[in-house]
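Submission sheet (multi-component)
Chains listed below:
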Amino acid sequence: QVQLQGSGPGLVKPSETLSLTCAVSGYSISSGYYWGWIRQPPGKGLEWIGSTHHSGSTFYNPSLKSRVAISIDTSKNQFSLNLSSVTAADTAVYYCARAILWFGDFYWGQGTLVIVSS
Amino acid sequence: SSELTQDPAVSVALGQTVRITCQGDSLRSYYASWYQQKPGQAPVLVIFAKNNRPSAIPDRFSGSSSGDTASLTITGAQAEDEADYYCNSRDSSGNHVLFGGGTKLTVL
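Outcome: structure written.
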């Protein structure tokens, strides 16, 4: 059974970079599937951030693309999210997830709340 | 278009059937997936690739699609089905993921 555990700072200052990591257990990332990040501002809906594959194929939300980087570390069996130049609007629960048939149908890990505040 | 539209709220009497819809131009070309989210919890996939259920999902959940609209049907709604439901799919380019705005289901 694949499990995903996100981790990272719960508080980030405005203009800094938000960095989260998702550790995967029960499955080798290098074996396949897309791996993604989705966020949910408090009391609001879901927003896809991006999805990546160990082959290097990566898709990003065009509204975030200039600030986002998603990477995979197969040696640690984890993938990461970096979101630069954050503002209060980036405050959200960030979920990491594993895709199934394409890069956007997801099994979800538990979320990580990130607050952007000075 | 580059959006998926859902009704904000739907209600159903206990034991009755309810349909939750998701409308968008890209659904003419791509299947929708559906997610259930209860307060304080991560979303759970209930339907993928139009009408496939993960093994842990009860068979009262089903999916369908016609034209630009995808639907999630719950046949015999239970109290535990009260939750927010989100659809998602690709955008018209096929290169990005869209989520609908979510539908809050109330079981009366």
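Remark: DSSP finds no helices and ten strands in chain B.
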